Amino acid sequence: MKLSVFSFSLASIFAATVAIAVEPATLPIKKTAVVGSSFLWENATVYFLLTDRFNNANKANDLAYGRRADAAPLRGYFGGDLAGITAKIKQGYFEDLGVDVIWITPPVEQIHAGTDEGTGKSYAYHGYWARDFTRVDANLGSEADMHALVDTAHGHGIRVLLDVVMNHTGPVTEIDPVWPAAWVRTGPPCTYKDIETTVSCTLVKNLPDLHTDSNETVALPPALVDKWKKEGRYEKEVKELDAFFKRTGWPRAPRYYLMKWHADWVRKYGFDGFRADTVKHVEPEVWKDLKQEASAAYEDWKRVNPKKKLGDEKFFMTAEIYNYTISQGLETRMDGGTRVNFYKNGFDSLINFGFKSDANKNYEELFSDYSTKLNGELKAYSVLNYISSHDDEHPFDAARTRVFEAGTKLLLSPGAAQIYYGDETARELIVADAKGDAALRSMMNWDDLMKNASRQGYSIAEVRKHWSKLGLFRHSHVAVGAGLHQKMSDQPYTFKRTYEKNGLSDKVIVALDLPANQSSSIEVQGVFADGAKLKDYYSGKYAIVTDGKVTFDSKNSILLIGKE
Fold it and tell me: Which end of the chain has the lower number of beta carbons within 10 A, N or C?
């Protein structure tokens, strides 16, 4: 961390936040009426959380299936559950951040035992070690809890992304058996030299790789048959599978079972899209077929639940392609020199692993570069930007010393934005004793927010308020993430974003690095006409355009200007 960058962050933005009335941290978050704003996936603000680490509303399900509290640091279950997310939706926490979408980690039933993956005993609290793709994991709650989460989110104008895994099952343990060889391969390990050694291999030791390449007819894994019979639902599941294969005409190969199981979550609960895990480790065409089946399920759900749907947009899919960056454009470079266009294989968006580095650029370099790419080669698609995540051990600002700057750059950049739980509350990413990616996955720091804890010269409530102002502005104006960027002035740094498409029109002006503690007058000629009433979404104040200028008595270093 360079002192000059940190000084800029606190000098220019901390002064601004002092002027903002921070709501008492001990009071419930005030619900903000934002339902009904125009929604575009290209402008979405996605809140990504690990369910187990977010909020514990039901302590009775903290350790299901005989799991124990004997894991290595930050590698066991902490008790967060689906009901905990629902409670925060009802409280208005997400709406007050301007969040459009909640992305939850895979809620499917995980392996029951703990296992040592080289960093100490670990449990499947993260959701990526499936045991049964058709069942809600009891540690997270019940089917009723899942219905309540999605329905409540929709009722608050928030869409929900389901994290799905097509690449692997969970590790093999003494009580979690391996599936038959026709279903999974247990070697060789991936070496990433080319497509073959990236797809037809196991990601890590003891992580069985599903045969998504196979067209061979396979029977259900015996462990799954036994489980379903004990639960009294074997006949029902088989009947549904028979109907699925008859309808689609697909062979009873592993990947089609998985497609049916994943699409069932959409048809049953109304998930609005998928975040697909380990995408480049699965044959590209598999994702295209999954999109087809999930889209049909989504349309079925909307027909049955016309009052619960939020709109008529199509089913959405974003991809985790490790190390994909926006600079790669449409084609992802696979090791060996081969390039694959995953956008043409079912995906509307790709997670942008490059943003965490690009965020070190100055505002104009970052914003103009992203706008050029998204309005050029990537015009029909989008990227999902992030500063930190659950498995990226090199986040932007790991020490949380540039938290205001991080929020400004993430939420004002072209493209969709991913808030990783706790970005907005400076949740610590460096945790003593936690090894590897576990340090990124501490429990959500609600106590810091409630007590308005201070850290490194700022308070947690001030950080969250800054992110909230930016998020609500973004939510209210699709031009922020989906519009065309154009610089208007170097001093103060001012830019406009304009969006015109499919009958939807929007425009905003943003000014940064303004002198704090004094009124600011900004040129808006050519964007807003004289007499227009404009709002500064950062201070909440209004002003009228006069002689091509607008003056806000906000005394902040940021102006977020648009029509209400």
Answer: C
Rounded mean pLDDT, 25-54: 72
How far apart CA 518 and CA 554 sit, in angstroms, is 7
Q: Are residues 453 and 495 in the same domain?
A: no
The token pair that represents 369 in the structure block = 């570069």
448 part of a folded domain: yes
For 239-287, the pLDDT digits (tens) are 999 999 999 999 999 999 999 999 999 999 999 999 999 999 999 999 9
> CATH number, domain at 324?
3.20.20.80
**Statement to judge: residues 8 and 65 lie in one domain:** yes
DSSP state of 156: T
Task: Name residue 189's amino acid.
Answer: P
d(CA 490, CA 363): 11
Domain extent for 312 = 3-171+265-482
H or E element in which residue 175 lies:
none
Q: Would you state the structure tokens that stand for residue 389, as one six-digit string?
A: 């995540």
| Active site members | 277, 320
Q: Which helix (H) or strand (E) holds 494?
A: strand 493-501
Smallest CA-to-CA distance from 370 within 396, 348, 352, 388 is with 352
Instruction: Give the total number of structural domains in the chain.
Output: 3
* Domain limit, last residue, from 422, 447, 482: 482
pLDDT at residue 25 is higher than 50: no
Mind listing the pLDDT tens digit for each residue in 364-422? 999 999 999 999 999 999 999 999 999 999 999 999 999 999 999 999 999 999 999 99
Q: Is residue 195 part of a domain?
A: no
CA neighbor of 425 nearest in space, from 396, 393, 447: 447
pTM for the complete prediction?
0.94
